[in-house]
Amino acid sequence: MTKRELKAKIEGKLMRHYGVVPARARTLMMYDACAQVVRDELMEKWVKTQKEILDKEGKQLCYFSIEFLLGRSLRNNVYNLGLTEAMESVLAEMGTSFEKVCGKEQDAALGNGGLGRLAACYIDSAACQGLPATGFSILYEYGLFKQRIIEGQQIELPDSWLDTGRSWLVTKEDETVEVNFGGEVVEDWSNGKLKVRVEGADTVLAIPNDMLISGFKSPTVNTLRLWQPKSPYTMNMKLFNTGDYLKAMERTANAEVLSKVLYPEDNNYEGKSLRIKQQYFFISASVQSILRKEMENYGTVDNLSKHYVFQINDTHPTMVIPELMRLLMDEYDMNWDQAWNITSHTVAFTNHTIMAEAMERWPEELIKKNMPRVFQIIVEINRRFCDRLSQVFYGDWERITRMSIFGNGEIRMANLAIAGSFSVNGVSALHSQILKDDTFNDYYLDTPEKFTNVTNGITYRRWLGQGNPGLTKLITNTIGDGFLRNPDELEKLMAYRNDDAFLEEFRKIKRENKVRLAKFIQEQNGIVLDPDSIFDVQAKRLHEYKRQLLNVMHILRQYYSLKQNPDQDFVPKTYLFGAKAAPGYSRAKDIIRLIHAVGDMINNDPQVNDKLKVVFIQDYKVTVAEILMPAAELSEQISTAGREASGTGNMKFMLNGAITIGTYDGANIEIHDKVGDDNFFLFGLRTAEVNQMIRHGYNSMQFYQNDRYIRQVVDAINNGIGSYHKEVKFPEIAASLLYSNYGNIADPYLLLADFEDYCRAQDLSSETYKDQKKWNQMAMTNTAMSGMFAADRSVLEYDERIWHLTHMAR
Questions:
Q1: 432 and 801 in contact (C-beta within 8 Å)?
Q2: Catalytic-role residue among 352, 412, 461, 613
Q3: To the nearest whole number, what is the mean pLDDT of the chain?
Q4: CA distances (Å), origin 226, targets 64, 175, 281, 289, 417
Q5: Per-residue model confidence (pLDDT) at position 684
Q6: What DSSP assignment string belongs to 129-178?
Q7: For 763, phi and psi rounded to 5 degrees?
Q8: What's the rounded Cα separation, in Å, for the pair 484 and 159?
């Protein structure tokens, strides 16, 4: 599209949709016009992509995920279409700017963190690599939540993204399907065959809304299908006219609540019921639509596994297995063996966790009540599964009980996912090994051929090409632009590791990004930052195992050290946090309060605040990350070894030239292996040491009693943070580090055991920063060696090891 054509199309949209010329258009109108022009361009490619798949009778990916963390779409799609310069020029001529117009778009916050961002990355990178894919999820009205901090406390507000997000949606009402909840299973024998149906169910309509997903300069355009629930029942006028307005609208409200928010709190029965209904709603609608399309294209569903692979992203979409079985048997007249053969050759499972508490389990009665036929099928899957296991592990009933899908009145979704999938993968080398050796060892011994690894990856063009244009320009001028297609070419930068001119430009760009972030922080938080201080960043979902608390403890140690000796040789440091806590996770919320209390104390202490600053960035999301990551210099990846499956934030920071301070955990291990020990601040216990310490009775009190710095910090947390007139006490946090509670060991994530070595690594990072040449050499090495963490590499490995998709024209 030429600049002239682009300008004419934007003008046309403004006139036809708003009746204005560019000079009279408000910024929001301009955003919508630009989005529609870009969507039209993508639509043409999308239609061609669908035709090519059908012409080739190709195999495509169906990626099921409860969340897709997309961020903003306008800039990303314009960049992928190669229209950035033209768009900037046209909008400037129209009296506005591309930056201002993009700023009107609200983040599509349909995710919580790494899981949802990974899903978005893979659909994008698949398009870039010419791999046909459709993502399936829910059209959440409010996404996760908008975080507001009031007096240090997290407050959750609705996050309405659809005001601007609807510009990207293509609603397909003609492809609406019905999803049924509850009812009674009725069995009939006819002509020697069992026919099963459900009577008396509550029906919800599922309306598909397609979002077009572009790939970088690729003719392939993929799809994200988001399902919107709607009641098929009209308002009860009789009740309404009698004044019972709420009852009259009850059925409509019960349907629409399915898409109100991502992850409703599930610490009560109603919350659990809503979550499981959300999962089944989008799974049933998705599988119905896939089977319907398979029938339309080929006249049979017998060859489903030749045309589709179903990748389930963690355990939330696991009901794809019994739902596919239900539809194949009850709607497409297959017997059990036929349906199971198709299902078990179509579904693949990605596991994203190691911790048992994160493995989904649902009460049997909850499934039985809401999805009675699905429940019957899960029971039968388990019966046949356990029958087979009794032959493989003859007499080992303890093992078979562990592997059973049912246990203690619950349905274990991970067990069901493994039983019904042809592939099971972890998301980092360590994680996948732990799955085989420990978490899923029983299943690995049964079917070792199922297990593989695909290390996570990121859409590096978004985090470098779009998010860090200064660094992108430097890299392009140095080694050419081939790295935008082939991330491995970034390694060519290693030839410039000793080039003083390159290192100086690298340093200047980092400082410019720090100045940009400092301006953002001053506007958002009212805190003035020193861009010449070390920018130390920990930005990720707040969870105890990610150990934001360990970071805070070290900050307190530094603070008390400075108070005792203000004239010491100290490298100024700015600590930046970005995190959301789950609404019902009280400990995580307390840690947010602690961070704010520590920040309030330090930032208002004139004796230290020129050397030390602490900032918590409110409402952390993709758009904020695009400002934060290019400015980061030290990347905090400090989870307890053996607890983090992979991580992807660590990769984004690395790409942007931040040096990792981290444990030997998740993808940190592969980052460490790529850059070497000299370019990584490694600390902490290894996984085997963590496990051994816990097995042999870890005693955190010994560390408290024997380390005066630990005592000083823990006592401060317990007795009060802040000045005497504004102290905030956190006795529950302090107690969790020292005393066991309800069968849980004290300090379960071994903060006190790793504290001393973490402080050593922090001291080393500050000492290293004094030698700016060495620091910049380490930083650029991280950028140069980050190519293997591109999502392009990940999706190609998935394709080679699991998917075996048809490759489209590129």
A1: no
A2: 352
A3: 94
A4: 11, 12, 11, 12, 23
A5: 97
A6: TT--EEEEEE--SS-S-EEEEETTEEEEE----HHHHGGGEEE-GGG-EE
A7: -60, -40
A8: 33
Closest by alpha carbon to 466, among 107, 649, 779, 216? 216
Contact 715, 708 (CB under 8 A): no
Helices (H), 404-462: 413-420, 429-434, 441-446, 460
Paired sense of beta strands 68-71 and 108-110, if any? antiparallel
- Is 648 a residue of the active site? yes
> 423-426 and 451-453: which strand pairing?
parallel
Would you call 431 helix, strand, or coil by DSSP? Answer: helix
Token pair, residue 217, equals: 């300069």
* 260: Cα separation from own chain's centroid: 19
Please tell me which residue in 543, 652, 672, 793 is annotated as part of the active site.
Answer: 652
Which residue has 């934001």 as its token pair? 548
Does the annotation count 580 as an active-site position? no
State how far the Cα of 516 lies from the Cα of 77, in Å rounded to an integer: 24
Query: Tell me: the pLDDT tens digits for 319-329?
Result: 999 999 999 99
Element (H, E) at 411: strand 410-412
Residues 6 or more apart whose Cβ sits within 8 Å of residue 588: 542, 543, 544, 581, 582
Alpha-carbon gap, residue 788 to 625, rounded angstroms: 21
> Would you call 541 a catalytic residue per the annotation?
yes
Give the pLDDT score at 235.
62
Asked whether 282 and 137 are in contact (CB, 8 A), the reply is yes
What burial class does residue 99 get, using C-beta atoms within 10 Å of its C-beta: 0-12 exposed, 13-18 middle, 19+ buried? Answer: exposed
pLDDT number for residue 248: 55
636 contacts 658 by C-beta, under 8 angstroms: no
Low-confidence stretches of the chain (pLDDT beneath 50): none
Q: Is 760 a catalytic residue?
A: no
Radius of gyration of the chain (CA): 27
pLDDT in tens, 433-467: 999 999 999 999 999 999 999 999 999 999 999 99
Q: 511, exposed or middle or buried, with CB in 10 Å at 0-12, 13-18, 19+? A: middle
Active-site residue among 75, 316, 541, 543? 541
Task: Let me know if 674 is a catalytic residue.
Answer: no
**CB-based burial label for 217 (10 Å; 0-12, 13-18, 19+):** middle
Query: From CA 503, how far away is CA 530, in angstroms rounded?
Result: 21
Between CA 600 and CA 164, with CA 631 as vertex, the angle to 5 degrees is: 90
- 501-557 confidence digits (pLDDT tens): 999 999 999 999 999 999 999 999 999 999 999 999 999 999 999 999 999 999 999
Size of the chain, expressed as the number of residues it contains? 810
Q: Does the annotation count 384 as an active-site position?
A: no
* Residues 494 and 781: beta-carbon distance below 8 Å: yes
d(CA 640, CA 753): 10
Quote the pLDDT of residue 206: 98
CA distances from residue 534 to 138, 597, 659, 682, 802 in whole angstroms, order as listed = 41, 21, 11, 18, 43
In eight-state DSSP terms, residue 106 is P
Among candidate residues 540, 593, 643, 674, the one labeled active-site is 540
- Which of 648, 660, 663, 783 is catalytic? The answer is 648
**Other Cβ atoms within 10 Å of 86 Cβ, number:** 19
* Residue of 39, 546, 547, 580 marked active site: 546
Which of 120, 117, 108 has its CA nearest to residue 63?
120
Q: What is the pLDDT of residue 354?
A: 86
Which is it for the CA torsion 553, 554, 560, 563, positive or negative?
negative
Rounded Cα distance, 14 and 458, in Å: 35
Closest CA to 786 of 678, 653, 626, 623: 653
Reference 810, options 221, 219, 222, 223; nearest CA is 219
